[in-house]
Specification:
Blueprint (H helix, E strand, L loop, with lengths): L2 H27 L2 H9 L16 H15 L3 E9 L20 E4 L6 E7 L5 E8 L7 E6 H7 L6 E11 L17
Parallel strand pairs: 1-5, 2-4
Antiparallel strand pairs: 1-6, 2-5, 3-4, 3-6
Length: 187
């Protein structure tokens, strides 16, 4: 047998024995008394982090206002694209259904439910849209608009346009969707 192979086997055996010794030593550190003391101790209940269910309303509101203050001076120039039929009806990042006919947008960092002014720098058309999704995830694009927004800004046919995006403020709350059910006519 080659000496190198013999050396590798002995290293494996030594490693296994060393690992076993460490495990045995650690297992010996736990005594019945220490286990009993740990189980008798009162249990701490972790508080939910801010922004999750169960968070204190004041803390969540303070966080929203801090995010809005950070975004207050936001202004950027870059490429805008649009998305439509392939995503129509799917859930957005904030949980609502995407409607390609509404004036909404996807942005990577701006807070959800804020209003931004998007200006097409080629034709100087301007539009207010509400951020309700995250993206774009293609290339170095700045914002994704709904198909309706792209049509109004005049770049629907080209697919992308150079735009300026300015933060305006928090968006107005959207009305809850109503469910219309058909009623049977009276007999």
């Amino acid at each position: 047998m080659h000496p190198f192979v013999r050396h590798r086997r002995s290293c494996r055996v030594a490693y296994g024995l060393g690992l076993g010794a460490v495990c045995a030593a650690l297992a010996g550190c736990v005594t019945d008394d220490s286990v009993a003391r740990r189980t008798d101790a009162p249990r701490a209940v972790a508080a939910a982090p801010s922004g999750q269910h169960g968070a204190r309303p004041k803390a969540a509101a303070a966080r929203r206002h801090a995010v809005a203050r950070e975004a207050a001076g936001y202004s950027a120039v870059g490429l805008a694209s649009w998305y439509g039929a392939g995503f129509h009806g799917r859930r957005t990042a904030d949980g609502e259904r995407f409607d390609m006919h509404s004036l909404t947008a996807a942005h990577r960092t701006l807070p959800m439910h804020c209003t931004v002014r998007v200006t097409n720098l080629a034709n100087h058309r301007s539009l207010l849209v509400r951020v309700n999704d995250r993206g774009p995830y293609v290339g170095h694009r700045l914002i994704d608009l709904s198909a309706a927004g792209a049509k109004l800004l005049g770049f629907y046919d080209r697919g992308v346009a150079r735009v300026k995006v300015d933060y305006v403020g928090p968006a107005r709350p959207q009305p809850a969707p109503t469910r219309v059910t058909a009623q049977a006519p009276p007999l």
